Amino acid sequence: MRNVKISRNPEKALWQMYAVIARLSEFQTTLGVTPAEIGALQLNATNLQYLVNFAKQLKDRVMEFSAFRKSMLDGAVGVVPPLPVFESVALPEATVGGILTAFRQLVKKIKASPGYTVQIGEALGLVIATPEPQPEPAFKPTCKAIALPANEMEVRFTKGKYDGARVYVRQIGQTDWQDMGLFTHSPAKMAAPVAADQPAMLEFRIKLMKANLPASDFSPIYRVVSNPD
To answer: pTM for this one?
Structure first.
């Protein structure tokens, strides 16, 4: 087995946070975790999701500002280019700083609990079991999952000589995969199987098909956060 460290990358740490949130209530008594600690973790996850999304939007705005600045300095005389708009930071939940610090402290408490086991660690995504060596598959396809507004999802893939790709999805913490159907063209668009008003961490994978039969191994698992807005 391999213990998982909380990532310093905010987006990867968010995935880990969602994995813990998905199952922690099942083990809170065993681990001595209070409802208040679970509530604080959920609030921190909401704010971290906001910060991750805001950082991506800010990067786009910086590019817009660079184009505006270039037009102002070197553009046509007498023409005012469109002004870039920068949104102010507005955290969705009233929490304090130190989101990842608090998360690491909670994980440390969980692992130090007398009731903690390797099985609980695996359920929370804090331990990864070392799989038995497997022969390399003949072919493993790749894909890219993108979150669209209103909980729509887009999965891009290259089908090549195959008829299409069958898409599978599940929420973090779930065991079973949901078959979203066979898609003969990329990108494949679909409604995310999540609650309408809450973002959720989803895992995707595909398998290429030929004559309605599997023609490849499963792709690697890709993760994306749904966008209810």
So the answer is: 0.56
